[in-house]
Amino acid sequence: MAHSTTTACLHLIALAVAGVLAALGEASGVGFDLHHRSSPVVKRWAEARGHPASAWCADAQGSPDYYSALSRHDRVHLARRGLAEGDANGKDLLTFADGNITYRLDGSLHYAEVAVGTPSTTFLVALDTGSNLFWVPCDCKHCAPMANNASTPGRGSPELRPYSPRNSSTSKPVSCDDALCDQLNACAATNSSSCPYTVSYVSANTSSSGVLVEDVMHLTRESVVGGEAVEAAVVLGCGQEQTGAFLDGAAEDGLLGLGIDKVSVPSVLAAGGLVASDSFSMCFSPDGYGRINFGDAGRRGQAERPSSSGTRTRRTTSA
User: Origin, by domain of life (predicted)?
Assistant: First the structure.
């Protein structure tokens, strides 16, 4: 969001407030309505008086651009006022490189755009708090069709492509003796040195299997105006075979598990010191849009839910 755009919006608000105060001086009682500077009321007021509405103010409510701009604006101003969470080392919230917006596409699952590899490939993955592994279609043996198989509100259908470690210069296999490989029995039964994985889900006969690889996930640090690019080394599943609901339209472009196991993305980001807290926040609105941030430990008065497994605990927050 350009500085000139923000300044134009602020000028509109200043004019609106001045008009309200002038009206109050002539009134016998005190009473007035408050409107957000990007609201349709302020937009109509500005246009009626010949003030050009800025691009940010003109964003349609409910559009991805509206929520993205609103989130960036709030995050920057919270940081300037010292209200945003962060530690003494300056670690602040991370989100995906393509933005923190999430979408509800099929009535129940929420999705976000995630970029991995070098050069990067973008996937529209389902967000799942009930599992741990991040996987995408990869060197497919049995996957859902990939040609334009999903669409994001507010944009055209993306060209979805399977990921291949061979095409990424930053990819490397996760070996069977790696601390993140917990499939020792499966390793012993194969001739490959790469760690295999199989994840089964609640839906009947729904699973993803393949091998684990390490590659970079492209993120951005939101507290920096304009965003600071961050490349985080994460472990992901090269999903060669999918079954069940994954072949019928659910998470056909991959799934990002947000559980508390050491292989999950929130855990990896915290273990690598990229965020100050092993936590994340997900906020949803009735219109199907929302946002996600990693490292968000919440604020006073904000609802939080502990997620635990054995001796590990993570806080997830909601607004």
Answer: Eukaryota
**Among 299, 313, 303, 316, which residue's Cα sits nearest to residue 74?**
299
Helix locations, the chain, DSSP H: 3-25, 40-48, 55-58, 64-80, 184-189, 265-271
Q: Is residue 68 part of a domain?
A: no
Four-CA torsion 159, 280, 277, 81, nearest 10 degrees: 100
Taking alpha carbons only, the member of 264, 2, 303, 4 closest to residue 133 is: 264
In this prediction, residue 20 has a pLDDT band, given cuts at 50, 70 and 90, of very low
Q: Please say which residue of 11, 35, 58 terminates a domain.
A: 58
Rounded-to-integer distance, Cα 219 and Cα 249, Å: 26
Between 174 and 53, residue with greater pLDDT = 174
C-alpha–C-alpha distance, residues 305 and 307, integer Å: 6
- CATH number where 193 lies: 2.40.70.10
In a domain, 65, yes or no: no
278 & 201 share domain: yes
Distance of CA 170 to the CA centre of its chain: 22
pLDDT range class, residue 255, cuts 50, 70, 90: very high
Pairing, β 207-221 against β 196-200: antiparallel
Q: What residue ranges in the chain does DSSP mark as E strands? A: 94-96, 101-104, 110-116, 121-128, 134-142, 172-173, 196-200, 207-221, 228-243, 255-257, 279-284, 289-294, 303-309, 312-318
Residues 17 and 147 in one domain: no
How far is residue 294's CA from residue 222's CA, in Å, rounded to a whole number?
A: 10
Percent of the chain topping pLDDT 70:
57
Q: How many domains does the chain have?
A: 2
* pLDDT tens, residue by residue, 168-203: 999 999 998 888 888 767 777 766 678 999 999 988
Whether 38 maps to a domain, the answer reads yes
Nearest to 97 by CA among 217, 1, 215: 217
**Residue 187 lies inside a defined structural domain of this protein:** yes
